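haha ok so turns out i had the wrong file open the whole time. this is the CORRECT one, sorry everyone. sequence first:
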Amino acid sequence: MNRIYYDAIAIVLCISLALMPAVALDLKLQIFGNANMDDTIDAQDLEYVRGIIDGSKEETELADANHDGTVDENDLTQIELILDGKGKNLTFIDLFGDAVTINKPIEHVASLGFMGPQLLRLIGAEDKLLPVVGGSKEAYPVFWGDISSYHSVGATPPDVDYEYMLSLSPDVVQTNLEMLNYISDSGRTQKKEFEKNLPGIPLINLNAREPSYISQSILIYGYLFDKEEKAREFAVWHDELLNKIKAISDKITENEKPTVLFQTHGAGYGFAAGGSRYGEAIRLAGGRNLLDEVANSSSSDYGQTRIEVDPEWVLSRNPDFIVSNYLDSNSTAGFETSDISGAKMTVDEILNTRELANVDAINNGNVYYIDNFLVGGGGLNLVGAAFLGKLWHPEEFKDLDPMEILKEYMEFYDSNFDVNKQGVFMYPSTANQK
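then structure:
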């Protein structure tokens, strides 16, 4: 009788899901319980686990919903609890490919990531944040709001104030290990340092920066913080836009792509490699990153956000464009102001670099500042790619309005900010690249 009852419930759930106007995402939700390895946990996963138990289905990586090493009736119970929103814990796969179990509900999270808090705001879970950040955000009161006043405890081991964090009794800690660059020996070492100094406190290490991973991460956040619907809404918006931009840039031939150097994290001759969030913005916008010649996809430097090169190398490669997100520490741009002086200072410094006087980018005035938030992560990278794409390929990107895209993003992030009233997002700019 119980089996018949549960089968009937599963059939009803399947019918209900079939009638729902949900949009599927082309990704695998990295949460245990996603037995059929699609983008969600639903009644189909119950049916799949039943199939594993009776021998009609092959066991999958995520079928062991309670992560006890065996796929059995207890996994059906765990999936039902997830579907009902009553699960006491959840196990997901983090940036490093490790399984992490977190007790629910999460009431207090200490977020040390540079972009991690953005994902929490996007899904409406900002109220779970403890008043602590990794690196100080006080220079960005408009973008971060109250978060800009939170106490900085340091983001990178060993320079982290663990004692202060522990005094706040966090349920979980979201670390700064939130980009592909950290899948390395250095990143593993930092993770071990966090584990050693925060005993018994689960860590969230999820990608919050590269655009290809944002939707996957935000869906996990949705399940962890019981904000699945809002998380899916943003993920659908994000990936539809990502696919639209890819469809444009994929049609641009290599010969049509301008050669680009992207200056990051300071003045001088430090540029972003491909595979980094900045390199991804260049690629999506239909540009050709000259750093690919120094650090291609098989190089250990691939994905680095700043690689130093000699000025002679820049001269020899003669970039068509130089783009920078560097801003003097005494200046503001982006969301914080409408004053262009800081962005202009960055551009003028590059234009006046004597060693590069004969570079095409400088001779043709093709040097631009773009706000770091638009290429830095948190789902905003697509906005930066739209700005750059509009600059380099105005005809191909004619149907995309970067300012409208930014407005749509801010409706998820902060509905009170009017992008048409304040901001220096790109300089020089033609009517904000509308």
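The chain is about 40% helix and 10% strand.
again sry for the mixup
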